[in-house]
């Protein structure tokens, strides 16, 4: 295929957008499952976690200020303001050659104390996801999410056990 891809003239733009959305949802589900299984402070998302954490804290001191309210509950208005966009753009571009798919879309929880849900989720780039979630993990802000995710997994396990027992009982009686 000669030339560069022009998204404005793509034939299946809607289909491509759906595929990106599906990929972002799958990544969110994978991350939630990881939170259920691994203590957040021990979770490594990339080989560059230390660098990303340090860079985030230096570039966005408002996120590093205790008790970390700006990191616990993200301010979408701030992130999308002219100043916020410019600061994030510089941050994102510094990972262009370091992090695969650094600008690929990802879903992130607005409030670290809650699970993924329509009202608690926004779309960010992959490196923004890493910057925020690595920081939340390191600072203990995902501990509640870890407990919630573990409880959810346990409920699902018990539900499956009950369903399997019903199937077994039904099979035995026929």
Automatic annotation (TrEMBL):
Domain of life, source organism: Eukaryota
Biased composition (Basic and acidic residues): 149-166
Location within or outside the cell: Cytoplasm
GO annotation, cellular component aspect: cytoplasm
Primary location: cytoplasm
InterPro entries: PBDC1-like_dom_sf, PBDC1_metazoa/fungi, Polysacc_synth_dom
Region (Disordered): 149-174
Alphabetical UniProt keywords: Cytoplasm
Span of domain Polysaccharide biosynthesis: 16-146
Family statement: Belongs to the PBDC1 family.
Protein name in the entry: Protein PBDC1 homolog
Source organism of this protein record: Lentinula lateritia
């Amino acid at each position: 295929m000669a030339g560069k891809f022009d998204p404005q003239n793509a034939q299946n733009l809607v289909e491509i957008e759906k595929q990106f959305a599906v990929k972002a949802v799958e990544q969110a589900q994978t991350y939630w499952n990881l939170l259920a299984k691994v203590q957040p402070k021990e979770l490594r998302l990339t080989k560059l976690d230390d660098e990303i954490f340090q860079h985030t804290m230096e570039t966005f001191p408002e996120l590093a200020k205790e008790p970390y309210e700006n990191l616990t509950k993200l301010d979408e208005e701030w992130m999308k303001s002219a100043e916020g966009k410019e600061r994030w753009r510089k941050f994102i571009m510094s990972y262009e050659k370091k992090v695969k798919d650094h600008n690929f879309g990802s879903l992130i929880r607005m409030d670290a104390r809650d699970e993924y849900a329509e009202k608690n989720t926004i779309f960010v780039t992959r490196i923004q996801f890493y910057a925020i979630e690595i920081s939340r993990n390191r600072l203990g802000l995902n501990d509640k999410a870890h407990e919630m995710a573990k409880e959810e997994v346990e409920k699902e396990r018990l539900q499956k056990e009950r369903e399997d027992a019903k199937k077994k009982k039904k099979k035995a009686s026929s």
